[in-house]
Design a protein that fits this description.
The protein is an alpha/beta fold. It has helices spanning 4-9, 12-21, 53-66, 111-121, 146-165, 184-190, 233-244, 258-268, 282-289, 314-337, 353-357, 363-387, 402-405, 409-417, 427-438, and strands at 42-49, 88-89, 98-107, 133-138, 171-176, 202-204, 224-228, 248-253, 271-274, 294-299, 341-350, 390-396, 449-452. It has three domains: 1-28, no CATH class; 31-204, Rossmann fold, CATH 3.40.50.720; 224-452, NAD(P)-binding Rossmann-like Domain (Rossmann fold, 3-Layer(aba) Sandwich). Helix 7 links the parallel strand 7 (224-228) and strand 8. Bound molecules: nicotinamide-adenine-dinucleotide.
């Protein structure tokens, strides 16, 4: 269902009218395309507090390889003096708005240093280009230093508040890190058009050694990825994006979707696997179909059977629990136990903001998606230690698919607008986030639940 309001506000009369009436002003988001893979403009690096010199030096290297750059010029970050309690910056060439701002606030340890955050961003935030990025870098909270923990937690409130006010399709995210090179894949994602619908997020990156892929344009080359529920909607976009990144994709869907699943597999040069994921032996059947092993497992299949609890018979409860949660647990266990998921593997499960915030009429769905979050948080450290496999979740907000097209008009319109970007996301937004988590260099991103929701007002 096309977002006609978004198309209307993209016209001059539409902009005039919506401004006069005080209506939401969604901006057309700049998304990735092969012709325009990077944000246009410079990257501005700012510093607040006193960052560790080694971390600052590593960060300078990573940003020099990563960030947006002036069109036609080689990639490179604007240099910033890496120390001092006052914020320091090196600006973009005069007249050119920065496409991205990275504020290194890892060295913010007290309330005074928080003043540097204000001093650094206050003068430049207005100049950030439309669809630009603000990325704040923070440190893990120090359990032994409540002043540091207060200052670092303050960055979360700051990030989320700025995300709500910045507008013009711009996003604001916080990355907590201890090692710049381990965060390279995350910074590449957040500083690119691929993260168009990800805002207000706090992402923790651990200290694992990152392995740069041999081919940056096809980081999943030589790897096999299985996507459940891939015949249409978000799953189809995930399959396409992982295939773009070089993976051999196994398109799994139910017999009723066989035609679409086979057509997609053929288009992507992959394989179709026609299987109901709720079958008790689904994990064993996947393992048997993949004797060469599996590198990326995407639990995307999902269903809704909405009713308020007072009107919900067990027949509407069980299938949601079976598809969205029980089968995810069973197949994950089977594919880890059989060794089908190889070391270096990635599991990405699909939660939902309904599982984080709750939603009237969705006790079954909300419970199943919250269960996915529990699975991810508990399994992630063990799966990494015992199998070398990371486990993360994406939590989509309102995404334009057949699932959301079926929502009654007024509720649908509210769902679309109630986020900082004032629009629904596209399946490709969830797919790009999944591809970042599936990336071979994302081994330090584990146990995270990343919302792809345009910073929805629903939930924390
Ligand atoms: P969709 O209904 O368009 O597609 C779901 C796919 O899963 C279909 O191809 C379907 O055949 C398949 N499927 C269902 N049951 C299956 C089973 N037992 N075995 C194998 N395949 C099965 O849904 P979508 O909107 O693309 O959503 C994809 C995922 O994203 C779901 O987990 C959904 O809960 C989640 N999600 C979607 C939104 C949204 O706004 N669309 C928001 C939050 C979360």
């Amino acid at each position: 269902m096309a977002d006609r309001f978004l198309s209307f506000t993209g016209t001059a009369p539409g902009r005039f009218l919506t401004r006069r009436l005080g209506l939401p002003q969604p901006a057309t988001l700049r998304r990735w395309s092969p012709e325009r893979p990077a944000l246009d403009g410079t990257l501005l690096r700012l510093v607040a507090g006193k960052p560790d010199p080694d971390l600052a030096a590593g960060l300078a290297d990573v940003l020099a390889r990563t960030g947006p750059h002036p069109s036609g010029a080689p990639s490179g970050a604007s240099a910033a003096a890496p120390s001092g309690t006052r914020a320091e910056s090196a600006g973009a060439p005069s007249g050119q708005p920065p496409a991205a701002v990275v504020l290194d606030a890892t060295g913010v340890r007290d309330v005074d240093a928080l003043g540097d955050v204000h001093a650094a961003l206050h003068p430049v935030v207005r100049s950030v280009a439309a669809s630009g990025r603000v990325v704040v870098l923070g440190a893990p909270l120090d359990a032994a230093d409540h002043h540091q923990a207060a200052a670092q937690q303050a960055l979360k409130g700051f990030t989320r508040s700025l995300g709500k006010e910045i507008g013009r399709g711009r996003t604001v995210n916080l990355v907590r890190l201890t090692d710049a090179s381990a965060a390279e894949s995350t910074l590449r994602f957040l500083l690119s058009p691929k993260s168009a619908y990800v805002s207000g997020q706090v992402i923790h990156v651990g200290a694992d050694a990152a392995t740069a892929p041999e081919d940056r344009d096809r980081p999943l080359a030589g790897r096999t990825a299985l996507v459940t529920g891939a015949a249409r909607g978000i799953g189809e976009a995930v399959a396409e994006t992982l295939a773009r990144d070089g993976a051999h994709v196994v398109v799994l869907d139910v017999p009723a979707a066989e035609k679409d699943a086979r057509a997609l597999a053929e288009r992507l040069g992959g394989t179709a696997l026609i299987l109901d994921i709720t079958a008790a032996d689904a994990g064993e059947r996947i393992a048997a179909a993949l004797p060469g092993g599996l590198d990326v497992l995407i639990h995307n299949a999902g269903v809704t059977r909405d009713r308020r609890l007072v009107n919900m018979p067990a027949e509407r409860w069980s299938p949601v629990m079976e598809v969205n949660l029980a089968s995810v647990l069973r197949t994950t266990d089977a594919l880890l136990a059989s060794g089908t998921l190889r070391p270096g593997g990635r599991i990405v499960a699909t939660a939902s903001i309904a599982g984080l915030a709750g939603n009237a009429g969705q006790t079954n769905y909300g419970a199943s998606k919250a269960g996915v979050v529990g699975l991810v948080r508990s399994l992630a450290p063990r799966a990494l230690e015992q199998h070398g496999v990371t486990v993360n979740a994406v939590a989509p907000g309102f995404i334009e698919t057949r699932m959301t097209a079926a929502i009654p008009l007024f509720i649908r319109e509210a769902g679309r607008r109630m986020n900082s970007l004032a629009q629904g996301g596209l399946p490709v937004d969830v797919a790009e986030t999944t591809a970042w988590l599936a990336h071979p260099a994302s081994g330090a991103v584990n146990g995270q639940v990343v919302r792809v929701c345009g910073q929805s007002l629903l939930g924390a």
